[in-house]
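Contributing new records

If you add data, match the layout below exactly. Sequence lines come first and carry their own label; structure lines follow with theirs. Keep one chain per record. Anything else will be rejected by the validation script.
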Amino acid sequence: MKLQHYGHACFTVDIGTTRLIIDPGNFSPQAGAITGAHAIFVTHQHADHADPATLRALHQGNPGIPLYAEPQAAEILRAEGIECRDVRPGDIVEVGDVTVTGVGGLHEVIHPSIPRVQNTGFVITSPGEKRLGVTGDSQEPCPEFHEIDALAFAITAPWTSVGAMIDALVAVAPRQAIPVHDAVASPPGRAIAVRLLTGLLPEGSVLTDWPESKIIEI
């Protein structure tokens, strides 16, 4: 399984001949140029995860590609004229030999005055491959993430702190923690978060940061 980061929350997952695109938002300007993909998955409605202009570009570059999003996001995208299918926690989507299962349910609290929106995380599996989890904007300790082989998690956000993120990772103890959702942090601030997380993950967990190539093999 190969992951390639396209900035902030967006990355591709290549498993065999199948390529998935995760959360192509407006903080990931290179995402619209991705080709050779077989499905797009969106965790929630916020523009840094689901940008209509980027999604239209992806549909042009990947004709007929299906788009799956949590229901609130799907409704918004359909209102923009973008064909989209709902994916809820518990739903299972088959893309070639790859299985994507929805998990979780709610975005983290930004502020008590702001209504919470839905957030569908994903568990991605394929025969003979490691399991990959995608949290989206949630720190919910989903049972499906417990001791998962790799977990793509939001390392920085307006709705969290480094301490809360450490607690969230300790709660599920992924074997490999992969940071995404980092456009809101300065390079020095992101480096501090990486250093603290690296030193405080539980035994058996490691943080794997993106190399210069922006490609990680798991």
